[in-house]
Design a protein that fits this description.
6-stranded antiparallel β-sheet, 2 domains, 7-stranded mixed β-sheet, alpha+beta, 8 helices, about 20% helix, elongated
């Protein structure tokens, strides 16, 4: 699998790099805590033996042209480790580049549920409350295919033919995998998948603020797939959100979805000219139908039994969810109920005063005219 090279040790890196991979999961946020390492979304966060790392939020954009898949990943992460690694399996060696964070801001805004007024509130509520050096020769069973510096990240594409060898390769760099993650990683190695490994460059460690610029990962694939099997090793609840961009609406078609169907957040066309991000416009130009799925795994060990796969839906019926809100009816700055009630009281009072005065007004007596002789 090409010349074997050893990736030099990256030192002083912090939790940021884990953001690249964990981003695939979710919703607004997914959370995974792992001492000393943990699974997340499509891969694993790898840290030291005495550290804990967690993902605060993650999302993934997926696109497939029939032969090549593109994943755009973003996440927020926190960690007690001085170094954190990210391990992302891909069906074939991947190319990695930085992506525009605006992609996620716009997609979230476009696909968010819309507020619909269900009733009006006429009265106010009165209730209370409410890096590195030169590459070298890798360990047997591990090939470092590419190394690249992307902004603050050092990223390597690795091929492994032996799970134990990959485990040793990571351990040599200060990252130890628990048995659960090694077990979840083994099927990918056996099937010949590659791995993206990324981490914050040492000189960037002091600037880490919990987020990392998203990555765009591109690789050959015979199907549209989101690697998720390693998530079965996660300890905590995981929430996933996937944006699939294509010519038509898609459905989930995997054993994990068969156990518990995901929620469709949005389905519909998004014209490329309607977005601000040039990179998002380019993705939409290749397929402007956006399908968004969300799913929560309270017990990943029993609920995540496969990678996530997507197939064309029977139709392109659009779905734009709404939620009910109560709107205030106002007259100027005031609720309409009190204003109208007060106005009614004034009118009634005026009528009563007018009626009372009319009732008690003195009767005008006209003196009779004297009779004529």
């Amino acid at each position: 699998m090409g010349t074997r090279r050893r990736v030099s040790a990256w030192q002083g890196a912090r939790t940021a790099l884990s953001s690249t991979l964990l981003a695939l999961v979710l919703a607004l946020g997914l959370v995974a805590v792992a001492p000393p390492a943990g699974a997340c979304a499509c891969g694993a966060v790898v840290d030291g033996p005495a550290d804990e790392s967690s993902v605060g939020a993650g999302t993934a954009v997926l696109q497939w042209d029939g032969t090549t898949e593109t994943l755009v990943l973003e996440l927020e992460v926190s960690s007690t480790a001085p170094e954190v690694g990210l391990l992302l399996p891909t069906p074939a060696p991947a190319e990695v580049a930085l992506a525009d964070p605006e992609i996620f801001r716009e997609l979230d805004e476009i696909t968010a549920p819309r507020a619909v007024v269900s009733e009006y509130r006429w009265w106010p509520e009165l209730g209370l409350g409410g890096s590195g050096g030169s590459p070298g020769v890798g360990a047997p069973g591990v090939d470092v295919l590419t190394e690249v510096r992307l902004g603050p990240l050092d990223v390597a594409t690795v091929a492994a033919t032996d799970t134990a060898a990959l485990d040793v390769w990571l351990a040599d760099r200060g990252f130890e995998l628990p048995a659960s993650v090694r077990g979840a990683m083994a099927p990918y190695v056996a099937e010949g998948w590659s791995f993206v490994v990324a981490r914050l460059a040492p000189e960037e460690a002091t600037t880490f603020d919990g987020t990392v610029q998203p990555l765009r990962v591109t690789f050959p694939s015979s199907a549209l797939v989101l690697p998720m099997r390693m998530t079965a090793a996660a300890d905590g609840t995981l929430r996933t959100r996937t944006y699939v961009l294509g010519d038509h609406r898609v459905d989930r078609a995997d054993p994990t979805a068969a156990l518990d169907a995901p929620t469709v957040r949005f389905a519909g066309r998004v014209p490329p000219g309607s977005v601000r991000s040039a990179e998002l416009a380019g993705l939409l130009a290749a397929g402007d139908y956006v399908t968004v799925h969300e799913q929560t795994f309270a017990d990943p060990a029993t609920q995540v039994v496969s990678d996530l796969t997507f197939v064309p839906a029977p139709s392109d019926v659009a779905h734009s969810p709404t939620y009910a809100v109560v709107a205030d009816k106002r007259i100027g700055p005031f609720h309409a109920g009190p204003v109208l009630a007060f106005g009614g009281v004034l009118v009634l009072s005026a009528l009563l005063v007018w009626g009372s005065r009319r009732h008690h007004a003195p009767v005008r007596v006209v003196a009779p005219r004297p009779a004529r002789a």
